[in-house]
Amino acid sequence: MDYTLKSDQKGRLTAIVDIGSNTVRLVVFHGPARIPLPVFNEKVQCRLGLGIDDTGLLNPQGVELAYETLNRFMKLIEVMGVDNVNLLATAAVREASDGPAFVAEIKKRFGADVRVLSGEEEAKLAAFGILSGLPHADGLLGDMGGASFDLVGLDHGVFDKHDTTPLGHLRISDGDRTSIPDMRKFIRNKLTPLKWLSDMKGRPFYAVGGSLRAVARLLMHQTDYPLHVIDNYTLSHSDVTRLLDEAAKLDQDKLFSVPDVSKKRLETLPSAIALLQEVLEIVQPSELVFSGYSMREGQFFLSLDEELKSQDPLISSCINLVEREGRFGQQGEEVYHWMEPIFANDSEEHNNLRHAACLLHDIAWAEHPDYRADHGFLRVLRLPVAGLSHHDRALMGACVYSRYKGDFKARIAKPLQTFLNDEDAVWTKTVGAALRLAHTLASGAPHLLDQTHLEIRGGELILSLPENEDIFLGEAVAKRVQTVAKHLGLSSRLEHG
User: Buried (b) or exposed (e) across 451-472, using 16+ Cβ within 10 A?
Assistant: First the structure.
């Protein structure tokens, strides 16, 4: 698989303007790339769908704010030199009787066409956002917006049944429904007729949308969770049921104390909590998986060519990062293949994570030497790649942390203490020691590693070196071979010729 961007693809920008029922948002992605890299992200809460059930119309104040917001966004798109622009409108514009007039006015003012998504299109775009990082996702996806809650069944990456319900947070909290029990009753009446949801029992539920991400922030805050990455934050059915029951009893001051969430988004927490509680009760999923991706990423994914879509999202993202910031080009590939003989029994998953760690092994090269371990660890742990479990993030981060001789007992390494068991720690320290040895041998020079060979033979770790090549000789090389061997429970030996 060729992961290299063609020269005419580098630097291209894609803008997606999401005209939602609650917010109007502009996201500009750098690409094309297998996983989108946002270079600009701004939203304004226009609340276009407020009161739509009573009037059948868009919120008049929201319409004016939307025009003002779009005026700024379209000018930003122009000055940024964006190549590809997509304006998408969702439930409120789709349902309001004055939705067509609103769309026509946007065309008149800004010369831009708006694509008004059907409920099915909206749901499937959200699903593509999930599938961009988890190509074989299997379970139920729910995307909560301002005016709708879209549901899609996923059968190992293939679309199954779907429905759109009027369960956006603006509607759930509308009228006299101010308490969570009242909201839950309203939600139950809308979900109960969807008999196909019973087919989803015992499978994961993927939670999508800003209000559901705010719930994730709340739960992380409640539990002092050590990694503040929403994507793939996963809780068992029993754990999330307990935590949501506790959250539902919090007073407003406690709810509004959640860090890193805007006050307006915090106001949606009661309706989002109520929705999740009902989904958990009706569907009985095996686990709840929060997603940091949505229909915007889904739209970006669909714009890619088939070659890009087929790339592994993690490896592709790592290669793109190294192309932007690395100093040794693709030496990570050489390192990965060079150390393969000592990891011959690894699973496919561990091989992929080791591949990524090799690509990123020099990520902190430009940092102060005393802080390279910390910076490298945090960069890898928080890598903006969809679909990585938090355990996988910790494994990769630990490999790079160990490569820089990081202290696993240090305060900054708390995520490692949370996510990794003893076996994980040994594996990551072995990978890290092998990365240090590779760097010592090659020092970034191309093809030097190809002159050496690492293998396990007769209970020993043997590093074979070419005869009369003193570039590989030195105390550092011998010590680092010994360190790798120690983690493997072996003795070590250098072999010449």
Answer: ebebeeeeeebbbebeeeeeeb
